[in-house]
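Note to self: keep these together.
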Amino acid sequence: MRLTRAIQQQENWNSLPGWNVTSLTTKEEDGNQIETQVKEHQDAIVYLTGPDIYRPGRKQCPTLLHSLSSLARHFSVPDPTSVPVVMILSDANLDNRTRAKIVQASPFPVQFHLDVPFSKTEDEPDEIPVTHEDVAYKRMCAFWFKYFFELGFLPNYVMRMDTDSCITSDLPSNPFEAMRERKLDYMWYSTFHEPANMIVDLKNFTESHPGNPNTDHANDPSLLFDTGNGNMRVFSTNLEWFFIPAFRRPEVVEWKQQVMDSNGIYNHRWGDAPLRTLEATKFFNTSAVARYCDFAYTHSVWAPFLPCDPNEDIHQSPARKGQIKNENGTIVGSITYGWETILKRA
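Structure:
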């Protein structure tokens, strides 16, 4: 496994409450050893955040502190110290006072790790077209698609939460236990349709770079693409769960690098959502991917998600659609809550 940017700097925050660590050493390609400190766990909840943890105007889940508070209200585990919240900092300028607020809001121990996903990487072309989103957003997509899985300190099971995402009703179970019991590689909560202008050439790339899936999937990944309008049905990646070793399998790593070499993220704004969907469809067995959605949830300015019906047959159920609003409350589109799929609920 190439830990190209595994940890560039590790800061020790033992003075903050809830921080218990053991020493761990990771090694980069050039042989330089970088000491990190992390408590050994099987599970973790991971956020990527910058120095500004407040997002004014996002009324449903306006700040990272609201997101953490939603975990305190709706995510219960027998031993809270067993599930640390890992804050991957995209910038070192997160002051002590803000860090203390984060620790106070979290129901679980907090660990801070400094990474630099918004800096230029070895995979990035010298020139990046200005399309759709800025360079920082594209670097964020590259981080969640590839570089995140190269971090040496990750435990086996990880729940990703975005800073403007909130859980608004009780989780029906411990999602990590659900993954272990079912031997799952990946769990997803919701889906949407990625518009055609965000996935330019992605279908052609998918067909010309099939990888070496070796799975029991009977479906063709190209079926995810709508031949009528060019959209693509994708898993929403603002709330998702990983079995990390599955994403480090050689055939998956090789395909990830092919994606990076294509420069599709930087030139066409391929997001981590369509790329993650292709990964799950290409490389993971049908029995190892499931939907986990029996609770309410909000993200950004999207319409709130309702819990899915535990008795609903998602093979036959029609898609439910809600409205997407911008910061001013203007309706700018719609989002699909679910779609017909071969994947089964956790």
